[in-house]
Task: structure prediction
Amino acid sequence: MRVAFVDLIFSWPPNGGADVDLYHVAQGLQAVGHDVRVFVVHEADSYERGRVTPDALPFPTTRLDCSRRDLRPDRLCRRLAAAVDAWRPDVVFIQHGFALKPYVCEALAHHRTVARYYAHELTCARDARRFREGKPCPKDYLRTPDFCRACALEGQRRAMCSWRLNTWNADYLAARAYRPKYHARLLASLRTVDAVVVYNSMLKDDLTGFHYRVKVIPSGVRVADYEDLPPPRGLASDRAVILMSGRAEDPLKGLDVLLEAGRRLREHRRDFEVRATHCDPAVSADWFTALGWSDHAEALRLYAAADMVVVPSLWAEPFGIVAVEAMAAGKPVCAGRIGGLRDIVRDGETGFLFEPGDATALARCIERLLDDAPLRERLGAEARRVARDYDWDRIIERHYLPLLEELVRA
Amino acid sequence: MPDPKRICAFYSRGPHFMRLLAFLREREPQAHITAVVPPGYPKALLGNRADAVIETAKAQYAARDLAGIRDLLRTIRAGRFDEFVVMFDSPRLRLLAAFTGAARRSVFTVDGRCLPLTVSPVAVLVSWLYRSLRGRLTFAYIYCVVHGRPVERRK
Result:
């Protein structure tokens, strides 16, 4: 089968989880014998959009070089449709993209198309995070468009007034996503695609009534990469190590909650150390180590030196790759009961779930694991077993191959 | 043998400061690299990426804090740097760079490129005014559209 992937943002080396997902899915489908081609939009002078060298990728890639002027919906769609049509695919996956994505869905509607959404792009016009005033936002662009349009504009005030536009802002302007018609276009574009793929069951529930075929397909890891990891040099500790990995400097990731839990634990015990991939000099304590930025290989090793991993996210993480990585490394995970983390971490089996932002509950979960080494071992072993379900080979076999079959039959 | 090149890397909050230092070390292994970091910054993180560290008196400087900025500039100028590298291309950092006395002033972009900051402070000011005016007009127009033409009334 000829499978095309169209991505408006893709870069490699990756800028985020969406790029990693596309890379592994395209590679995985190619490995099982499908004919794959990735169509990438590249914008000159943008670090976010299409920074790829096609020859360096393991699958055939067509890079469409554009200036910002070419990124107007009509021009962009004409070029993309011409390139994709010439290749004659059986199925087209419309991957990551911001406000321009509905136009692309319409332009490719004469193919069998699957729209892939990675975060809250459909329900949050502000920044796809659906997080406002310190908590997950109950509003939803599909159902309360006027509230969300005003919120989206307010969220971009600073960038717009200083005219320092990132890809999100530029697409918002190019797509005229502020206009009332845009909402109708977004709903219409959802009707034109044959299937919608999201990361977790919560995102699926958001789309109830807007599309009849919404599939939940998680992202994955290469489980083999996490086995027998050597510990990082110079980070040996005689205390139990609690690790927070990922972009810990992002306030939505909840480092403050972990620090508060750490402070409470520190009041009555000294047998632990908190480590975070973070380098804010304002955070300093004898039980806290800021690990700063590290590359992917080094980040994997950090798991080997940890006794447990904490994912205290405050926002509804669409997926939560850190939790899966920790599980693949055989570590129990304490995570907020929110977004994709609810699907990944099995409470009491592979770790513990707590209410997002509740430092007392997190301290209780950590304490339970600190006090009970056999429990840590047991949960870690089960976590490693469950993480095998997130191996890329299994994701392709269980989710993508049946989806392709279903689409072709339909 | 000529003296090694003296490079100053100016910290801004974000994960890619380490990447900047690693990039500079790789580009010019012989250079003497100085990291300018805020007070309390965990210097152990820098490892061998920096040869010297200057700790600023404050974590952040307000535009009005002229005395503080003067002292900071004096400290940096004393280092007699050949190159001064910042992490963002903003008018404030451009102005700061312009007064450091470094012959070469650069910005390290998020995608790992080191580009020269060669424009004069006047050009920076003109560009800032243009951007500011364009941005505010666009914002005002969109504000009118968003608040004057609701989606729900159309239905």
Notes: The interface with chain A takes residues 13-19, 37-42, 45, 59, 109-111, 131-132, 134-136, 138-139, 142-143, 145-147, 149-152, 154 of chain B (CB under 8 Å). The domain at 6-119 of chain B is CATH 3.40.50.2000 (Rossmann fold). Helices of chain B lie at 17-27, 66-78, 91-98, 121-148, 151-154. The longest strand of chain B covers residues 32-37.
